[in-house]
Amino acid sequence: MAFITLETEKLKKNYHYLNTFFSKHDIEWSIVTKMLCGNKKYLKELLDLGINQYSDSRITNLKMIKLLKEEAQTIYIKPPAKGVIEEVVTYADISMNTDFDTIRMLSEEALKQGKIHKIIIMIDLGELREGVMRDDFVDFYSTVFQMKNIEVVGIGTNLSCLYGILPNNDKLIQLCLYKQLIELKFNVDIPFISGGSSVTIPLIEQKLLPKDVNHFRVGETLFMGTDVYNNRKYEELENDIFKLYAEIIELYEKPLIPSGEMGLNLEGDTVTFDQENVGKTTYRAIIDVGLLDIDIKHFDPVDFAIKYAGATSDMVVLDLGENPKGYKVGDQIEFTMDYMGIVRIMNSKYIEKRVLN
């Protein structure tokens, strides 16, 4: 049976390193929990770390966090759809917003629930994902400022997720200037500039982060130990908190080239083969994980000698060559995964989740 593991000691190490790092630079941070897909077992491990603010883009995940730790502060980190307004006000203490009508609906719902709903207004600084356009921001804020039961606690931006536009000193200075402009024009205090995510951490190290940027939303660097900006791994952090194990369910020596008339495969592709391999054989292992669970581009065997031969919805076929390590049916093959690999596996109800303490 295939399963994914989370090693709690490695998670604790990464958390304490980052928490110390952010504290040293007077930055508050929120853990982005998207990678855990609301898994109760893994969320419990996260909630025990000590931080009290969690961010997610799925209401069901925030609901699970509140169920496990009612006093936890939660942030909904994408513009709310109209159909989830009631739940956003119920389960998110803060939400990130870009649309006037949406905020008006949040205001009306907050009034019904007898709450003050806090929001962070997002500004588009070039990534062209969510965010109010810069030329419209002051007018947008002036309208939102008048809404009942709505409190603007910050302004923020998102970079790198859609097109890979990297944060830099110039873009983040612009964000700080908008905060100063709003505070002066409307005589208000905006506590947070949420301008940071995992990709922005290197700017702190290089002393290129404007001092007014005081809030980060971090997931990938915590869970994977990656320097997203430079596409590398931090030596100080653990990089393999998650691992996937899949069982060999069949193993035979078979030809390298299939026989018969070639058509399209499951994904609609025509597969070609090197005809020089006609007549040659290899040991082929089938494991109990498939395309429903993961894209083969996003996970790699720890044993570098193992190669991919193909995949279908429920099975992946591996090429073991001459099988020098003597793998047999029932053995577990260990895999590492990138960000999207972990998210896909975590989202699969067919893969068991285990905690390694």
From TrEMBL:
* Domain Alanine racemase N-terminal residues, every copy: 9-225
Cross-referenced InterPro entries, in alphabetical order? Answer: Ala_racemase (IPR000821), Ala_racemase_N (IPR001608), PLP-binding_barrel (IPR029066)
* Protein name, UniProt field: Amino acid racemase
* Keyword DNA-binding annotated: no
Recorded source organism is Flavobacterium arsenatis
- Tell me the keywords, alphabetical order: Isomerase, Pyridoxal phosphate
Q: Does the keyword Isomerase apply?
A: yes
- Please provide an example of a Pfam family that matches this protein in its UniProt record: Ala_racemase_N
Q: Which domain of life is it from?
A: Bacteria
Which cofactor is essential here?
A: pyridoxal 5'-phosphate
